Amino acid sequence: MQTSLIATPIQDVETGALILLSFEKEDREKAELFASVNSATGGWLAEIYDTAEFTGKSLTFALLHRPPGMKSRRVLAVGAGKRDRFDTAELRKAVAAGVRHLKAKSCRSIAVVLDPLWANPEYVSAAVEGAITGDFEPSRYKTAKEEECSLDSLTLVAPSTSAEWQEALDRGRILAEAQNFTRELVNEPANRMNPMVLADRARRLAEEQGLEFELLDRDRMAQLGMGALLGVAQGSDEPPALIILRYQPPKPASTNVHLGLVGKGVTFDTGGISIKPSDGMEKMKYDMAGGGAVLGAMRAIAQLKPPVAVTALIPAVENMPGGRAQRPGDIVTTLSGKTVEVLNTDAEGRLILADALTYARRLGCTHLVDAATLTGAIVVALGHVNVGVFSNNQDLLERLLSAAKEEGEKMWAMPLDDDYKEYLKSAFADIPNIGNRWGGAITAAMFLKEFVEDTPWVHLDIAGTAWLDDAKPFMAKGPSGVAVRTFVNLAMNWKA
Ligand code: BES
Ligand code: ZN
Ligand code: ZN
User: Fold this and answer.
1) Which residue among 55, 278, 294, 448 is least packed, with the fewest CB closer than 10 Å?
2) Looking at the CA of 344, which ligand is closest?
3) Which domains does the chain have, with CATH numbers?
């Protein structure tokens, strides 16, 4: 998709459709844009409000063909909700919904009008992000392409085309393309995406973007003593991989911070011997969404060049109930030296993350953030709306939550006090890999906490948010690419 920024008067914008954000109870006196669109459309805009055909309610639409006083073939009014609640997150969604609405009508060239009354460069980024993420379809394996149409060109009609605004456009494009890159990876079915395929994708990404790539294979992991990761991998014929990507900031470095991004990369989770019910098991191809998000973030980081060093670690395995699979009751020795009693082989994510987090500390990471589709319990707690956030460090937690807020990714801090340690007691090893019935997302996070020790760390449980069971007006069904933008924002905005 071509993206461009112009400051042309809206009447003169040549495009398939012009997207116009319109608020509830629009104040027509103050809104110059309203007046000019209204006159160029022969009074259409005032009329749809007056007749209540369109009220400006969030994510509603009104479409006009061949506006008499405009070069654009159509105008699409998109409801932007209440003016005082409008922000970049609302804009991102509204533009995405507008794009999806128009795509369904075979429109391939779209312009989005950013009103000088509220627009600033951040709104440019958000609008581009909305358009590009809204354009994504998980249709790679559909052979009949005619139903699908993706955008050819996107134009932003902004108050300025200066370097600052142009940079905002580029940043938005880079972020959204990284998010869609993640969604492509996550959508791959497990017969086409196993640990080595994921490693190959990471290698290709590193080559293209100028990142350092390293792969630890089974032998190397055995030498190091990653017993928890290898225990999960042993039930599958597909060999495991610990994927490592490194980004170095431009010299001279302004800080010694070394951020470690760790992503769960279970390319398929059958549950192992503690096998899952078959109903819905097909979705477990998205159990590498944390790893996918880390790879997407590294793609954008390589392009945007934040001031901090970033190392990505993705433990990649397939959790299968093969003849050599680990059994409930097995005791494994982790890289840290701690022993774990594997009471449930379906709680595999925390096992592979334990070794990856320990290794990240050995590589010198000063701050750790992991993303994982870790527990069904987080879906019970927060539904499909918020990412569950757990941390052992208030400063890092605040940085992460503010990055998430800026990127319009909903995240919610969960408790992690030592009282929950009660739930993780093993009679035969240092720690069991599951707790009791209650607070399952918290006990999973408590388990991880044992392995990060005193390193500042945030854990994102994205089990409820990495996959949309149904399409939204602003996003296709399937992988969401959650956490990519937050990770990049966190690295970009790192200040002492
Ligand atoms: N990958 C699953 C968690 C999951 C559940 C992700 C639903 C996406 C949607 C994880 O490996 C798992 O199976 N967790 C178990 C833990 C339990 C055995 C303590 C769970 O949540 O049921
Ligand atoms: Zn599992
Ligand atoms: Zn899993």
Assistant:
1) 278
2) 1
3) 2-135 (3.40.220.10), 177-492 (3.40.630.10)
